[in-house]
Amino acid sequence: MRHISKFHKDEDGLSTVEYIIILILIAVVAIGAWRNFGESVEYQVHESTGEVNSL
Description:
Layout: H1 2-9, H2 14-54
């Protein structure tokens, strides 16, 4: 019974799990932002190409 209560009170690994969750959330947001940025750049390049070709 002591072993179970000892593990129940042990919070050493908790901060590691929290950091991993935060890093995953940051990665998801960064991937989403990078994807939107890439689509925006691709649109601008296509628009510029069309304008240059019309000259």
